[in-house]
């Protein structure tokens, strides 16, 4: 009788342990699934200029930020705004002259904070206004601090007639090992009523 009881107890212990292993494995599977979901998330990097802007006047929120916020909302993306105080309070004409000088000299103005860790993302949107045929120089400062090898990179611009200019090709030069695709541009004066255009573009990707 004692042998039977001992055998039953042993069986119960083994079954309990196996059940615990299954639960642990289940948690591991859930963690792997979550990791996989995170890997498919999108990230938005952008520079946007508030204050005095061509066509829209003095604005509290920059045109590109509005588009970046649309992408963040629609795609459930995370974002990093490239911030520099170099242009704070500048009127439009002095600003574009300074931007022209920076572009001609290839200057790389510093940005605030540290570059984002993009290792968990596979799609990165990059956006900004078009200043003298390309993105503002401060964006290229950040480009040197991030690695987009193997990622899908999607450039977008806000403009008042320049379209994409050379922004997409300059992104390709900056990140030759990334897949640069799906470029998009929108007029700055349209962004506040242009969410549907952004949504249509995102659905086409």
Describe this entry's structure for a reader.
The chain has 205 residues and is an alpha/beta fold. The protein has one domain (41-204): Rossmann fold (3-Layer(aba) Sandwich), CATH 3.40.50. The protein is built from six helices and eight strands. It has helices spanning 2-39, 63-75, 92-105, 137-143, 167-174, 195-204, and strands at 42-46, 51-53, 57-59, 78-81, 123-129, 152-159, 179-180, 184-187. Strands 1, 4, 5, 6, 7 and 8 form a six-stranded parallel β-sheet that branches. Strands 2-3 form a two-stranded antiparallel sheet. It is globular, with a radius of gyration of 25 Å. It starts with a helix and ends with a helix. The relative contact order is 0.14.
| CATH homolog superfamily | Flavodoxin domain
Distance between the terminal alpha carbons, to the nearest Å? 71 Å
**H/E order of the elements?**
HEEEHEHEHEHEEH
CATH class designation? Alpha Beta
Q: Sheet bearing the most strands, described? A: 6 strands, parallel
Tell me the β content. 15-25%
Second CATH tier, the architecture: 3-Layer(aba) Sandwich
- Spans of at least 5 consecutive residues with low confidence: 1-39
Q: Helix count?
A: 6
Mean pLDDT, rounded to whole units?
86
Structural class: alpha/beta
Count of individual domains = 1
Helix content: 40-55%
DSSP, total strands:
8
> What is the 3D form?
globular
Task: Give the CATH topology.
Answer: Rossmann fold
User: What is the radius of gyration computed over CA atoms, rounded to a whole number of angstroms?
Assistant: 25 Å
